[in-house]
Design goal:
Elements: H1 9-17, H2 27-39, E1 43-48, E2 56-58, E3 64-67, E4 74-82, E5 89-96, E6 101-110, E7 113-122, E8 130-133, E9 136-138, H3 140-143, H4 155-159, E10 165-173, E11 183-190, E12 201-205, H5 206-212, H6 221-228, H7 247-257, H8 266-279, E13 282-287, E14 295-297, E15 301-304, E16 310-319, E17 326-334, E18 338-347, E19 350-359, E20 367-370, E21 373-375, H9 390-394, E22 401-408, E23 418-425, E24 438-442, H10 443-449, H11 458-465
Parallel strand pairs: 6-11, 18-23
Antiparallel strand pairs: 1-16, 2-3, 3-4, 4-5, 4-13, 6-7, 6-9, 7-8, 7-12, 10-11, 14-15, 15-16, 16-17, 18-19, 18-21, 19-20, 19-24, 22-23
Helix pairs in contact: 1-5, 6-11, 7-10
Length: about 475
């Protein structure tokens, strides 16, 4: 049994993560509820030429594709120079969205258990239309009503903290290969008063949310990044509950709450990260879209001649239950699905995660900690460069695979993009010695880095969000 008092929020988070029982709705009923919500909403996504993108235009000499208001985001060209990887210089389009948006979840205790308020929300790029998103998911342009629509529901609870208690508050990065230094405010608040619950919103425990992440494309990227920041660094004495019968779940809980027996000290990890940032160079300069080498602009797309990686398309969107029912915007369409995976193994009796220092052109500070394998929308089945540990992941046996689902990228900017998310267990024969840009961390250490900005990338956070104890 757990021998701790509910004295701090980390304990509250842990109890919620260990709870799947919910008097409001059973976990198995959530999928049916989402299906009903999907049936109630009219959705139409139509690919259109750039010339038909209402309120969007190419600026003079095709410098960028931008909204007439100067807000929201723009598609711009960049030239990248680096000393990492086989290709040291390349050009590409990138999303420039300098504003910081809200990704916020309201929580409330019922009968001593913390519940999370999620919404059934449609984003234009979602594969299956509705997914479970945070209580509040809004760019600055949205919540300042640049679009002329309604104020996002529950915004006042995040802007007026007299109504709430802040439990988690972080700036976290978006996809570094697609966004230029983009960050969002990931925030969890707790309310004590009764609040109105609108039709598309639902109370779930953290345990239920993590169970639903085992299904393909139900929990959206924004919810996953917010809950990934939750730590369970319980300072009190803890015995692993008897009802956690799965050996991996028990060992992963121990890796989450224990700061003992880690292969590296925290100071050693800071030194390693600092060394990586000093070793690698990243210089990004702005160029016009028409200057991008190996890419072309047509009436309907911005794409590579070899059709690799991704392309930019125009879309006309109609969604009946949004603040604005119809609008146009550019979207990023992938060339292939991707793969992100952590390899984990026990070291000194504690589960460690194999992490890489990954440089991406849009990173805020050169490198971020990334999953062991991260092949974003490239054809990883026939890569044009060697990807360390890829074959180990792809050839993993069934009894090694701890987690294996397809999860969508952020549907507000990406059109039907998904990655295969995997966690793969290695045995003691897997080497502790690693290439220079890879290192072993416990889940406790990863959670500690998540308290700070721009250390773990969004792919790593997606995988961490899926870690369950029941």
């Amino acid at each position: 049994m757990i021998r701790i008092m509910v004295e701090n929020i980390q304990n509250d988070f842990l109890f919620s993560a260990l709870t799947e029982k919910n008097p409001f709705i059973q976990t198995k009923e959530v999928i049916s509820w989402l299906r009903e919500k999907n049936d109630q909403v009219d959705v139409k996504i139509e690919k259109i030429p750039f010339a038909q993108l209402n309120e969007w235009h190419f600026t003079d000499n095709y410098v960028k594709l931008a909204h007439q208001s100067g807000n929201f985001f723009s598609i711009e060209g960049i030239r990248v120079n680096s000393n990492q990887g086989l290709k040291k210089t390349w050009d590409q389009p990138i999303i420039n969205q300098p504003e910081i948006g809200y990704l916020g979840i309201i929580t409330k205790k019922f009968n001593g258990i913390l519940y999370f308020l999620l919404q059934a929300k449609i984003e234009p790029g979602n594969i299956n239309n509705i997914q479970l998103s945070p209580t509040l998911q809004a760019t600055k342009s949205n919540f300042t009503q640049i679009h002329g629509g309604k104020t996002p529901t529950y915004l006042e609870y995040f802007q007026n903290h007299n109504k709430s208690i802040v439990l988690l508050d972080q700036l976290q990065s978006e996809q570094g290969a697609r966004f230029l230094k983009k960050r969002n405010r990931n925030i969890i608040i707790m309310v004590e008063e009764d609040i109105p619950i609108f039709d598309n919103f639902i109370w779930l425990t953290l345990g239920q949310i993590k169970k639903l992440i085992t299904h393909n494309n139900l929990i959206n990227m924004d919810t996953r990044t917010v809950i990934s920041g939750i730590a369970f660094n319980v300072n009190n004495e803890l015995q692993i509950p008897e009802f956690i019968g799965n050996e991996f779940n028990r060992s992963i809980l121990l890796s989450s709450i224990s700061n003992k027996k880690s292969l590296h000290t925290f100071d050693q990890l800071i030194t390693w990260i600092t060394k990586q940032k000093c070793k690698y160079e990243l210089n990004v300069s702005s160029i016009s879209l028409h200057e991008i080498d190996e890419w072309y602009i047509s009436n309907e797309t911005i794409a590579r001649y070899d059709e690799k990686y991704f392309k930019v398309i125009g879309a006309k969107i109609t969604i009946s239950n949004r603040e604005i029912n119809s609008w146009c915007q550019p979207l990023i369409e992938p060339a292939h699905e991707g793969l992100i995976a952590f390899i984990v193994r026990k070291i000194n009796g504690i589960v460690h995660f194999l992490v890489q220092a990954k440089l991406e052109c849009g990173n805020f500070d050169i490198i971020e900690l990334a999953p062991t394998v991260q092949c974003l929308t490239g054809n990883f089945r026939k890569p044009d460069y060697e990807i360390p540990f890829l074959e180990f992941v792809l050839n993993a046996k069934a009894n090694q695979i701890i987690y294996n689902t397809y999860q969508s990228e952020e549907g507000g900017r990406f059109f039907q993009e998904q990655n295969r998310n995997m966690i793969v267990m290695a045995d003691e024969s897997f080497p502790e010695e690693l290439p220079e840009s890879y290192i072993w961390l416990t889940l406790y250490q990863l959670n500690t880095f998540l308290k700070f900005n721009n250390f773990l990338n969004i792919q790593a956070r997606s995988l961490i969000s899926a870690i369950r104890f029941i």
